[in-house]
Amino acid sequence: MESELLSTPQDYLPILIQLIVAAGFGVGTIIITHLIGPKVRTENKLGAFESGVEVIGNARQPFSIKYFIVAILFVIFDIEVIFMYPWAVNFREFGLSGLIEMFVFMGLLLLGFIYIIKRKALEWD
After folding, report:
1. Where are the alpha helices (DSSP H) in the chain?
2. Which of 3, 28, 68, 86 has an alpha carbon within 20 to 30 A of 105's alpha carbon?
3. Nearest Cα to 113, choosing from 75, 77, 83?
4. N- to C-terminal Cα separation, the chain
């Protein structure tokens, strides 16, 4: 029984091979595209390009960060909601303690949302 719990270096060999192949693919792709890719350097190619829109004005101009705050909050709450899927799949196995833990988790989410609303982080000025 105890010998089943011990791992040897050869157990990690497939993981090491996968890491080497992944890194080799990444580095190899970059090198090959650099070698066989077009090398024409025109003013148009070297100019700044952002989603097909010509750059207008100074990049150092201050702007409101409300959009980014909303985006970050969305990602945070979205990740927290993802934690509910494994709980829902194993709901019956967790029993009453699992239900109480999820209520605590949901309560913390609700407190975070109330805090965000009170701070007026979602209001567009």
Report:
1. 2-5, 13-36, 43-46, 66-82, 84-89, 91-118
2. 68
3. 77
4. 65
Tell me whether residue 97 is exposed, middle or buried, using C-beta atoms within 10 angstroms of its C-beta: 0 to 12, 13 to 18, 19 or more. exposed
Summarize pLDDT for 33-73 with one digit per residue, the tens.
999 988 888 887 777 666 666 667 777 777 777 778 888 88
- Residue 50 contacts residue 72 (beta carbons within 8 Å): no
Whose structure tokens read 């750059």? 55
Task: Tell me, letter by letter, the H, E, C secondary structure of 24-46.
Answer: HHHHHHHHHHHHHCCCCCCHHHH
- Classify 68 as helix, strand or coil: helix
**pLDDT at residue 104, as a whole number:** 93
Beta partners for 53? 50
- Please work out, in degrees rounded to the nearest 5, the angle formed at the alpha carbon of residue 52 by the alpha carbons of 49 and 53: 80
Instruction: Give the other-Cβ count within 10 Å of 29's Cβ.
Output: 10
Contacts of 38 (CB under 8 A, 6+ apart): none
